[in-house]
Amino acid sequence: MTPPHAFVIDIDGCLSREGVPIEGSVEALRKLQELGVPHVFCTNGWGSLESDRAERLSRTFGVDVSGDQVVLSHTPLRTEVVRRFRDSRVLVVGEGCAPVARQYGLNRAEGVREYGERHASLFPRRRSTAAKVQDDENNPVRAIVVFEDAEDLGEALQLCLDVLLTNGNPCGPRVLIKDEDSEQKVEVWFTNPDLTYAGLARHPRLTQGSYRLCLETLFESATSSTSTSYSVPSTRTRKERRLKAMTVGKPTRLTGETALSKLLAQCPDGTTQDDITVYTVGDNPYADVALANTSKSLRFCVLQLLLCTDHTRYIQ
Ligand SMILES: [Mg+2]
Question: What are the pLDDT digits (tens) for 67-80?
């Protein structure tokens, strides 16, 4: 007997573009609801609670969507990261995302802007340089979580680099430069591996994965040189140090597992992964097909409604 089907559905470029439904998507979602087919919406979108995104989806497509059916880029943080950093200081990158992080349970999360206000001389282009940097020796930042693209990329890069190189206390020494055997103690979590996304502009737009490259390059340059300032790669004199970071979001394993658990929650009690055939539906081979490959029960599927999307823009 064929196992029941379930769907993990991409949103941007698949169901809609910049919030406007793609032809056929409304009818497809209504059909899934009428038939009672388990489905979740899985996107590398960000910046809100799942319940808020569900409300927007309901309005856009005219169907009932609950927060339990939504997997955002940062949804997997609700388990792993919250469990480990619940009461630790966490620096959050992404405009307006610190409140979301606190609602997730990261009780001491601060946004880049909030953190910068209390460490005013770290980014003098925005604030007075006269203010003293607060000494956090006994209360260092333990993790940097990039929820979404930085509101001010320059400020975010500077503050993240300060926190990383000093192991959480920018008032203290840059231990990762001073001692090449020292360990990176601040964990870094990214929530979207995509380099670009498809907007209304003719060409792809930069997103989080591109900004990650910037931080990695600066980190590696800073820690590979004995100079007190950051040097260009050709002057490296030390063994190379790479930024240690984790990534969630499509197509990572943690995001695949999160989507699967939400699908199983819609199935009758006792249903397991082996009892259902899960299809991923999307327009981006590097996110949606790759997500399907993270789990043996996920398969990529191109539905008729997707044929109107321009796949070639992702494959150039
Ligand atoms: Mg897409």
Answer: 999 999 999 999 88
Strands (E), the chain: 5-9, 16-17, 20-21, 39-42, 70-71, 89-93, 108-111, 141-146, 187-190, 196-197, 205-206, 246-247, 277-281, 298-301
Residue 49 structure tokens = 């609670």
Break the chain into its structural domains and give their ranges: 5-73+250-315, 76-247
Between 286 and 255, name the one with better pLDDT.
Answer: 255
Centroid of ligand 1 to alpha carbon of 302 (angstroms): 12
Rounded CA-CA distance 5/37 in Å is: 7
Distance 13 CA to ligand 1 centre (A): 4
CATH code for the part of the protein at 76-247: 3.40.50.1000
Q: What is the pTM of this model?
A: 0.82
CA of 112 to the centre of ligand 1 (A): 28
Largest CA distance in the chain: 73
- CATH architecture assigned to 5-73+250-315: 3-Layer(aba) Sandwich (3.40)
